[in-house]
Amino acid sequence: MFKALNKLFRPRPQPRLAAVPDGTRYYVIGDIHGRLDLYDAMIAAIDEDDRARPQVDTQVILLGDLVDRGPDSAGVVARTRAWQAQRKVRILAGNHEEMFLNAFSKPEVLRHFLKHGGRETILSYGLSKKQFNAMNLEELFALMPTLIPQSDRDYITDFEEMIIAGDYVFVHAGVDPAVPLSEQKRSDLLWIRDRFLSHEGPLDKVVVHGHTIFNKVMDCGNRIGIDTGAFRSGVLTALVLEADQRRILQASQTDGGPIEVFHGERA
To answer: Which CATH number is 237's domain given?
Structure first.
């Protein structure tokens, strides 16, 4: 009887927390959208944070949408290329990278790109507002291949679609909950929203994603959204993963004031 009671009242084992592989640390940065100022602050914060902690295999993952909407997409691309020369940085393709590359195909696609933040990207490559406003769509389309270096376009073309680390999978927008990770479509990885966000059941792995803006880090158990709308909110977020622990770093600017960095001990 006592054995039965002891078994009945024994604490239930806690479920195992999601983890990245032993000996690794991941800094996962949400949508930057041309905010080079916040990105520079985040890079400095990550480099400082990583130096202050035990040496492991550290990787940085950018969740895509480096370009559009914010004022310096060209600068963000250049800064990322320089950072990759210093540490492991992997980059996922976002829907805005796809729109950017497709804008070189025909004028009507360029028109769509301009309506969704592409104007700011083009201006960041050295075209003045006066020059931009004086051009019609066909003239701008003809200028694009000479204005934006082929090397930048090739670089963006090589961005990845999905990265897996332990119990986590990193994508830009999300995954189709009805399809295994190995069978996901690029269109869903870069564009999906409602079917993914409304799914409450378990997924193959914990999905860390951007694409959809939240006021704060959105941890739903099966997914973690870290796009805090840097281009309009002034808050750029990074999720830090090590073993089964999660932290956040945020570079934040309010009303044009100085950029501050916030360190959170739990996402």
So the answer is: 3.60.21.10
Structure token pair of residue 144: 């694009």
Residues 6+ apart with CB under 8 A from 161: 92, 93, 171, 184, 186, 189, 190
pLDDT at residue 15 is higher than 80:
no
Name the residue range of residue 82's domain. Answer: 20-264
- Is there a domain that residue 222 lies in? yes
Instruction: Compute how many other C-beta atoms are within 10 angstroms of the C-beta atom of residue 205.
Output: 18
* CB neighbourhood size of 141 (10 A): 19
Contact status, residue 263 vs residue 247, Cβ threshold 8 Å: yes
Token pair recorded at residue 27: 């800094």
Q: Residue 250 forms beta bridges with which residues?
A: 237, 262
Q: What is the pTM of this model?
A: 0.93
- What are the Cα distances from residue 151, in Å, to 41, 77, 148, 261? 26, 11, 9, 32
What mean pLDDT is reported for the chain? 95
